[in-house]
Amino acid sequence: MDFCDVDDATLTYECGPLAYDDFPKTEQPVYLLGEVYSAIHDLEDLRHDVRSRLWLTYRKNFPSIGGTGPTSDAGWGCMLRCGQMMLAHALILRHLGRSWRWFEGTSDEKYKRILKMFQDKKSSYYSIQQIAAMGVSEGKAVGHWFGPNTIAQVLKKLVVYDEWSSLVIHVAMDNTVIEEDIRCLCKPAEYKDRLDMKEIHGMKKRMSNSPGAQLIDCYSDSASSNVNSETLVHKKEVDSTKWKPLLLVIPLRLGLTETNAVYVDSLKCCLRFRQSVGLIGGKPNHAHWFIGYVGDEMIFLDPHLTQNSVDIDELDSADDSFHCGHSSRMKILELDPSIALGYFCETEADFDDLCHSIRKFIMCPGGTVMFELCKTRPHHWPPYEPHTTKAGINTSEFTMVERASCGSDEEFELVG
């Protein structure tokens, strides 16, 4: 991981003519977050698409984590930022659609509301403060590097507080996507016989007594800015008759110490699906958000730039530092084998189409299977618990780790 030198200077990307080869001049198609472009004929549209993604980088001079903790995530927060970027794109799809584009000075209220969710302040749902603090419940001390699975698990916990988006996150473990589990999560009314109501009421009690119940303190549609656990559970019960938009995250390991070449074609195929929100991964302790590919090169946004924290709530505050004028590229085989694929399914029809595409293009005879897709949960597996929530944590006390101790990643079951 880069340990950026955090000095008094504010580093920003300067929009303007730069001698930067963001896309090669090639006839090969460019696949970007479910869209297809020509790097020759669609170059400006392609660049505008990249520029419209939320670019979340290292920041400094933000309110300290836990009141006395770090005021910058430089050197340890890159995977946290990549998780933010993937989720931010899912929220843009949810509220604005894939065709939405950012223009400097935009006054789009939905866009501004999404952006505020990722500000570096405790009152924001998906802030670095909330993510780092919730990471403690996953065994990651504040200042410790996350792996793809850890950030997915943390965001899964935080998203339940975002009533406006009504989004659910499913993290598919053991290289296996279970359709029935996801339908149970997204349409619980149709699977109510599988839910243990005692567990739900027990969860309400645990959440109300948990420090995590006070962890989130954000604006909402309700009169109170605090989201209490009883409201959360009640809302899930009331809204359980319709499909809840899904962010599906699939953590994988595509080799022992390096990406195995046998998975390259399957990986490309996964990035071509229209539901793709990219993947998070990179090199050891050096994470990126990968948004597509061209030829044998991955296209990514890089969070390793330290910028001053920006408060969007302030008058005349600019949002240009949240958008990058160019993407970067790296060879697919240079990718660290620990990754997490992401897919957004707004509707059940989107999920059905994704399952069909996986079976047709990934699980086809003669192909290299990266993960399994099953209709139902194997009998020897424990019951699925879609509403399980671990106890929250108190960010007023935490342990800072030495940066040198940051490991490469969590444990994964090897594919194949």
TrEMBL record:
GO biological process, alphabetically ordered: aggrephagy; autophagosome assembly; mitophagy; piecemeal microautophagy of the nucleus; protein processing; protein transport
This protein's UniProt keywords: Autophagy, Cytoplasm, Hydrolase, Protease, Protein transport, Thiol protease, Transport
Domain Peptidase C54 catalytic: start-end pairs: 44-356
A Pfam family recorded for this sequence: Peptidase_C54
Stored InterPro entries: Papain-like_cys_pep_sf, Peptidase_C54, Peptidase_C54_cat
Subcellular location: Cytoplasm
EC number: 3.4.22.-
Chief location category: cytoplasm
GO MF annotation: an example: cysteine-type endopeptidase activity
The organism's place on the tree of life at top rank: Eukaryota
Catalytic reaction(s) noted: [protein]-C-terminal L-amino acid-glycyl-phosphatidylethanolamide + H2O = [protein]-C-terminal L-amino acid-glycine + a 1,2-diacyl-sn-glycero-3-phosphoethanolamine
CC annotations in GO: cytoplasm
Similarity section: Belongs to the peptidase C54 family.
Chain's role: Cysteine protease that plays a key role in autophagy by mediating both proteolytic activation and delipidation of ATG8 family proteins.
PANTHER family, sorted: CYSTEINE PROTEASE, CYSTEINE PROTEASE ATG4
Stated name of the protein: Cysteine protease
Organism: Potamilus streckersoni
Species classification: Eukaryota, Metazoa, Spiralia, Lophotrochozoa, Mollusca
